[in-house]
Design brief:
By secondary structure, this protein is an all-alpha fold. It is built from eight helices and no strands. α2 packs across α5, α3 packs across α5 and α3 runs antiparallel to α8. The structure holds 2-acetamido-2-deoxy-beta-D-glucopyranose (NAG). 2-acetamido-2-deoxy-beta-D-glucopyranose binds next to α6.
Length: about 200
Amino acid sequence: MKKSDSFYGYSLILAFFMLFLAARSQLITDFYKTSCPNIMAIVRREVQNAIKIEMRMAASLLRLHFHDCFVNGCDASILLDVSDGEKFAGPNLNSVRGFDVVDNIKTSVESACPGVVSCADIVAIAARDSVLLSGGPTWKVLLGRRDALVANQSGANTGLPSPFDNLGNIILKFANVGLNLKDVVSLSDSLIDALYRRSYNWTI
Ligand SMILES: *[C@@H]1O[C@H](CO)[C@@H](O)[C@H](O)[C@H]1NC(C)=O
């Protein structure tokens, strides 16, 4: 894969998140302007620390956000530790990573601004920072999401793309959440692959 290809993938990812966010027009970029003015710097620092320890974490944090958003929207329901939680659904179990990083970010954010910032917003900012810190583009993250109180494990099992799905089913599952074929390629392949390879210094 050429380097330019991976950047093409990045721009598709950008379009992908814009689509998700556009569907939630009540979100705004400066939601925490007075209640938690340092939110962006805190998340950036924690993501940077995590990537320094393990570069692959950048791809993992993006995937965490993507797998959260696919089920009932970007509501952090993937983080819930209940036995019927989404994190234990087939497409997530033993493959979604980064929960410890999100916990660290949340702890730092809570000590600066207790009880203000949603985990869903933290995951969204962390995904953006992961792409940016890996050499990809940046975008403004709209904020003001509310965290889910319940998970939807059956929704995760049926809605998320699985390694056992054929291509037609994967395309259909993306279409179900308003995403097109380019989004399928960029999220399933280019970006994750590019980040993964980069983290092991393979030739892209
Ligand atoms: C769970 O997710 C599925 C698939 O996305 C959806 O059809 C269903 O309405 C969701 N259930 C609840 C209770 O949100």
